[in-house]
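Quick note —
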Amino acid sequence: MKLNDLTFYDYFRSSASYRVRIALNLKGLQPETVEIVDLRTGAQSQSLYKSVEPSGLVPSFTFGGKTFGQSLALIEWLDAMYPSPRLIPTDPLAALGVREVAHTIACDIHPLNNLRILKYITNTLGASADAKQEWYRHWICAGFDTLEALIAPHRDSGPFCLGTTPTLADICLVPQVYNARRFNVDLSAYPAICAVDAHCTILPEFARAAPE
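Predicted structure written out below.
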């Protein structure tokens, strides 16, 4: 299925874009147009993209003459417009649990370690490469301590974060684990996180979304 008249602004190594790619794959959806915003060259800060998305952030969707950003908002919209399979459960309590995991990643972990924060730490505050690495690892581990506690009690109920089907929680988890490995974070203290990631990443919908 295609999304008519929708342009998806993507970048292969953006973990927020990675989330949206997974969600699109799980729903069997393919945008009509995919534009690559190369963060390595600073394209996100140039007038061409900022005229489309004033925040300069990816991902974003443009359709109907309007642009919308924020990966979790975009995924929730996809779930409302294309409700099969569900990525956020209809049961309010189950949905709360899924959002708790997803927001722990997208609101607590990721913002402290995204590209513009790391650049500010080094370019403006003068932190060394080692200090930047330490910053990254500290906030990953602080967040993963919480995630492990949230996910571990559900390991007997299914291979995903919170049961037998992939949800927004898994969509957020896999890109964050990918980033942690890129920065050589020791994940040995997080067996539940690693088990969910190992299961998800062999699924074609997740594998096709990977940066590679």
